[in-house]
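Problem 12. The chain below contains 714 residues. Write out its predicted structure in token notation.
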Amino acid sequence: MNANMILPILVFYPFAGALLSGMIGAKWEKARDLFAGFVVISEFLLVLAVFIMNRGDGEAAILFSSYMPGICGRALSFEMDGFRLVYVLIAAFMWMMATILSGEYMAHHQHKNRYYLFLLATLGATMGVFLSDDLFTLFIFFEIMSLTSYVWVAQEETEVSLKAAETYLAVSIIGGLVMLMGIFILFQELGTLKINQLSFLAEAYRVNTYHNGGSRMRLYAAGACMLFGFGAKAGAFPLHIWLPKAHPVAPAPASALLSGILTKTGIFGILILSCHLFIYDRTWGILIFTIGVLTMFGGALLAVFSVDLKRTLACSSMSQIGFIMVGIGILALLSDKNLLSGILSDTVSHMEDPLEVLHAVYGTFLHMVNHSLIKLVLFMAAGVIFMNTHALDLNEIRGYGRKKPLLKIIFLTGALAIGGIPFFGGYISKTLLHESILAYGGGGLMKAAEIIFIVSGGLTVAYMTKLFAAVFVEKNKDEEKQKQFDENRHYMNKASGFALTGSAAVLFVWGLFPHAVMERIAAFAKKFMDCMYRSDAKSEVAYFSPENLKGALFSIAIGVFVYFFIIRRLMMRRGDYVNVWPKWLDLEHLLYRPVLLGFLPAVCGIACRICDSFVDIGVVGLRKTVYKDSPLPYERKEGNAFTEGIGRIMNSFQAFRNRLWGKKHPTHKDFVHLTASGIEDFRESFMIIQRSLSFGLLMFGIGLALTLIYIILW
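Solution.
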């Protein structure tokens, strides 16, 4: 098989599997479940084989490329480098585990056939996004992914789920349209949408505009539009409104994928903008860093005050996306700092000491990977809890996991990892990000950002402690319910147990070997993310030094304080968890709906009325001056001139007949009306005939007959 055919297979194989699963599921549900499992497992094994065969070339610029001309009016172009290889492997792994859990989770749900169809279709679209070689291909699969994942949110078809799906779709559509506008502007300015050409052309554009006294505002406008679209999918502030709504209503396996992978497609787009389009751009770095800080802290704060298991995890996803964006922003700032300080040589491909930038690259990428694997474990564990309790409110599921050691260990693994506890993956990536912030230095604002970074880590510890304590430590106030929870020992089947245990094991082993495993995988992203790339650059971070451990301990201390003095005192009344977050702070109802459905229509309506009034004044003025009014023409009640003429002639013959021989029995028919209605009936009948199959066959027969006559005679 041609190596370049691997990429189209990885993308389109799940789409074909989705269609076949839908056809199989129409008659055989069990066969459909097995077939869907076969598709995702074979997809994972194929990606794993590609990874094993190319692990030694992970730092290469391009491993595979494929070009498919004439598709979608332009072409589809795919490419695989180290970064893309790692992330399609993670995506395939997560889809495999989520699909295995879906067998038990969806056993008693309606519309299972639809669920599996769109589950596989979204896998294909996600692969298409990560493997895109240009922004046109990326946009095509980005929009397909938004449409197919919308079905996940609306799966239950309840009032709440349909409302959440509406919000998700609205954000996705608006974000996609704004992103498309940015792509148009970018193509007009640079003349290409190839991702690997953006850095060179953007630098040439910057130099050209500088020497000609021009402005980069059009390029910034393109970047801002695309950032809007990618940020909406990532769940960045203030476009995060769909996250806390979509996750609680979507099936748990779908929530794991929404949080763990689909948000990373947005991050992937932001990385393209930051590492390829706006290289060494301090303004862009400040923008991304600021959005990251707001998202990081805002998401953590929302998670602290949430009393719903999946909603807390959804807000946590928002916060962790903020950590990643902080890494992207500091990467841009460090690149600009090194450029201005003269560290770079004559070409921008080498630098004297690349470790500062390298740490930002490693920290950002590893936190992406950590968050994907962590949310897979946590959301699947939440799915098992919901599958048995049919509830997500902490007061209702309280104490469920007290006597379930396996589920407790699995959830604890994810909680410790996301909390940044030493010897877990989250600690490694957060340490690298913290090192990058310290390396940049800066004034008071950067110091404030560092404090917010540590506090956000502490809030993470607090809300994960809240979840673990509520589900696995505390007792339910209803003793009978607690007894039922304790007696529920067979809470998941072997397949679901394999999915959860396997995912948690990967997460646990992943964090134990930061230098031997994590950094080697992170090196795959250097070429894609590090514009100051040097293949011989190696990380030298002492992860467990007193200085780095001190930062983690500060976060843990803050988390303990918030849990005992805020959550336990402010959010608990009479032993129950209470949501004290004001409902009016919901940005969707506070800002977006009033603006989009109230203010903007009102403003546009007033503007249209004003314009309409001016047009009316102009028309009246012209009619009274240049184009003076003329008498109105004769207006017929029905028919046309032909039917009226025929009708009048028939009426005259009727009157003549009545005078000569119809005096005793005169006729009084209105032939003008009869002729008009007859013609109208004929037209309707003819239209019906035109639209019918028989008419089509008749026309085909006439055409065939005329063709034969022509052949015979001429």
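Discussion. The mean pLDDT is 82. Students who got a different answer should revisit the alignment rule from Section 12.3.
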